[in-house]
Design brief:
The complex is a heterodimer of chains A (129) and B (372). Chain A is α+β, with helices and mostly antiparallel strands and 129 residues long. Chain A is 20% helix and 34% strand. Chain A is built from four helices and nine strands, in the order E-E-E-H-E-E-E-E-E-H-H-E-H. In chain A, strands 1-2-3-9-8-5 form a six-stranded antiparallel beta sheet. A three-stranded antiparallel beta sheet of chain A has the order 4-6-7. The termini of chain A are close together. Chain B is built from eight helices and 19 strands. The chains are: A alpha+beta (129), B alpha+beta (372).
Chain lengths: 129, 372
């Protein structure tokens, strides 16, 4: 069973979003890391890059495949997790903490309300299983 | 069983019980990885041992007084050089010299050869071989794929593990040789071959003993211990063979790729007499192939994948056939077809990774060579 922390928001692209004021921290969920397998490379944007909602902001590569990652919200990148250059495997071992990917200043903080709750994400996973 | 249903090896239940992540591989329901994951599976095979279900591979018997001359006519290597108990890497070629498949030819006797071909191409190969076979060849051909399971135990501990359940002296079997004997009381062909770049064995037996042998290997290999044997899925099989720069049909090999292009000149014996594709291959050897397979490693962050374009001096000049992170070497490596002038080690190239040109350099192959 996937680990789905209560305090986070989720997207249907299997990202998690931690909202703190107008800043969102974003990573991929336990379910996503498990489906990808061993992550070996994470390609992230630069600080200052601006994205609309549901734009590809980077990619996660496992040994076998590459998957694009999409912004669950629009906004400007304020920080990226450079640590993933050296330890991309954190995405597997600790997806909700050390495996975080980007922080964004949200263009419209109201957007966060439209994201899935933990219960809704769990339901979504069950329905698509 | 409907035509759309995936084929299963006799170890299908065993894979599921081990938590194998099952995928459609050329019409076969196979584990791409188990619980340990591709990186651990790969590393364990290099440092200890890995266990592979390769029962999906195809086996074709060629039996009769004309067996050797028939197989010599449809393959590139020289079958007359084989001695009993020896196996030979070879290729089936078409009239244009393109590779129908790569295969192993095992010599059991003067009138008995076994061809071991790729899983996804077994039907195609058998149809191809049949279409070039007639009564005049003085031998019979039989697609015996369903009569064999095949389990590969590979890695530095492979011999030690297998020796515990066979009286056949394994040290006496040289690389690319085989012996018939009993494994765990079961009639088997014990072949010192593999697709990992490690020492190891491939064991062929009646499918009804597949689970028995599989479970025995896991138990004797210490599966579950810190450095014990791990079952390895297709993903690890692919990264292991890529580190060893072994070709994979559909990537480095195909109907429009010749042995010379794929660096398989060493299995192409033009002097042995006529064989299908010989004329075309002789012409290509004379003129020199227009492209050749080369190994490369990325010198900037990025992973090349199959089908990505290769650039030299801003000009598109080749294509990646296989690309992946190399778990043991901890580099991102790949194979690509390039104009021969660009295949010298040290040649700087760029790989187009989703629109970004990322630097790489041609390196000698194999990328990985085990210490003997």
């Amino acid at each position: 069973m996937s680990n789905i922390p209560e305090n986070l928001r989720y997207s249907k692209d299997h990202e998690w979003i931690a909202v703190d004021g107008d800043v969102a921290t974003i990573g991929i969920t336990d379910y996503a890391q498990h489906s990808l397998g061993d992550v070996v490379y994470v390609d992230l944007p630069r600080v200052g890059d601006k994205f609309d909602t549901h734009e590809s902001f980077g990619s996660v590569e496992s040994v076998k495949a590459v998957s694009e990652i999409f912004t669950p919200l629009g906004g400007e990148i304020t920080e990226v997790n450079d640590g993933l250059n050296d330890t991309p495997e954190s995405v597997n071992s600790d997806p909700y903490s050390a495996g975080w990917m980007i922080k964004m200043k949200m263009a419209n903080s109201g957007e966060a309300d439209a994201l899935l709750s933990a219960a809704e994400y769990e339901e979504y996973l069950e329905a698509s299983a | 069983m409907s035509e759309n249903e995936l084929k299963r090896t006799p170890l299908n239940d065993a894979h599921r019980a081990l938590g194998g992540k099952m995928v459609d591989f050329g019409g076969w329901d196979m584990p791409v990885q188990y619980k340990a994951g591709v990186i651990d599976e790969h590393l364990r095979c290099r440092t200890s041992s890995g266990l592979f279900d390769v029962s999906h591979m195809g086996e074709i018997w060629v039996v009769g007084p004309g067996a050797i001359s028939f197989v010599n006519r449809i393959t590139t290597n020289d079958v007359t050089k084989l001695v009993e108990g020896q196996a030979q890497y070879s290729a089936l070629t078409n009239e244009k010299g393109g590779i129908v498949d790569d295969l192993l030819v095992y010599r059991f006797g003067e009138e008995k050869l076994l061809l071991v071909v790729n899983a996804g191409t077994t039907e195609k190969d058998f149809a191809w071989i049949s279409s070039h076979h007639s009564a005049a060849d003085n031998c019979t051909i039989e697609n015996a794929s369903a009569k064999f399971c095949q389990i590969a135990v590979q890695g530095p501990n492979a011999l030690k593990i297998l020796q515990q359940i066979t009286e056949t002296p394994l040290e006496a079997i040289s690389y690319y040789h085989f012996s018939e004997g009993k494994v765990d009381g079961v009639d088997a062909i014990i072949s010192r071959t593999g697709y990992t770049g490690e020492d190891g064995f491939e064991v062929y037996a009646d499918p009804k003993f597949a689970e028995q042998l599989w479970n025995k290997f896991l138990a004797l290999g210490g599966f579950g211990d810190g450095d014990g044997i791990l079952p390895c899925g297709l993903a690890a099989r692919n990264t292991l063979r890529l580190e060893a720069a072994m070709s994979l049909y559909g990537h480095e090999l195909g109907d429009d790729i010749t042995p010379y292009e794929a660096n398989l000149g060493w299995i192409t014996k033009l002097a042995k007499g006529d064989f299908i594709g010989r004329q075309a291959l002789a012409e290509q050897k004379e003129a020199g192939p227009k492209r050749k397979l080369a190994g490369f490693e990325m010198t900037e962050p990025g992973i090349a994948r199959d089908g990505f374009d290769v650039y030299v001096n801003d000009e598109k000049c080749g294509v990646v056939t296989s690309g992946s992170p190399a778990p043991y070497l901890k580099k991102n490596i790949g194979l690509a077809f390039l104009p021969p002038a660009f295949t010298t080690a040290g040649q700087e190239i760029k790989i187009d990774i989703r629109g970004r040109k990322v630097a790489a350099v041609v390196v000698p192959t194999p990328f990985y060579k085990r210490r003997k």
